[in-house]
């Protein structure tokens, strides 16, 4: 079943099931922080306001209470997330 991602102060969308949350946000042109994309650095962290995710690989980085690492998780339900610094869109060169 498809799940919905709701970004606080942003918008909602339905990502493709096989994508990690980070990949799904990138497909929607959300400007996301990341470095390792493998659960090591913790830079892709967002706040999980509501819902559940499953980790596709066990993250190594410390994950504070209420946060998730978007590079290595997929949706388990509809989720509401808050992106640190707000939801910014990628700028494209014209
Ligand atoms: S990008 Fe490094 S933990 Fe997600």
Query: What is the structural class?
Result: mainly beta
Mean pLDDT: 96
Q: Strand tally, please?
A: 7
Strand order of the largest sheet: 2-1-7-3-5
* Percent strand: 25-35%
What count of helical segments does DSSP give?
Answer: 1
Note the gap between the termini. 37 Å
Contiguous low-pLDDT stretches (5 residues minimum) are none
Q: Which kinds of small molecule does this entry bind, naming each only once?
A: FE2/S2 (inorganic) cluster
What summary fits the major beta sheet?
A: 5 strands, mixed
* Structural shape: globular
The succession of helices and strands, N to C, reads: EEHEEEEE
What share of residues is helical?
Answer: under 10%
> What is the CA-atom radius of gyration, in angstroms?
12 Å
In brief, what are we looking at here?
This protein has 94 residues and is mainly beta.
């Amino acid at each position: 079943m498809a799940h919905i991602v709701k970004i606080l102060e942003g918008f909602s969308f339905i990502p493709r099931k096989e994508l990690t949350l980070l990949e799904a946000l990138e497909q929607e042109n959300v400007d996301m922080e990341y470095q390792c994309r493998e659960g090591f650095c913790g830079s892709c962290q967002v706040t999980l306001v509501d819902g559940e995710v499953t980790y596709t690989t066990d993250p190594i980085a410390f994950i504070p209470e209420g946060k998730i690492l978007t590079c290595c998780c997929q949706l388990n339900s509809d989720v509401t997330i808050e992106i640190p610094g707000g939801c910014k869109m990628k700028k494209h060169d014209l």
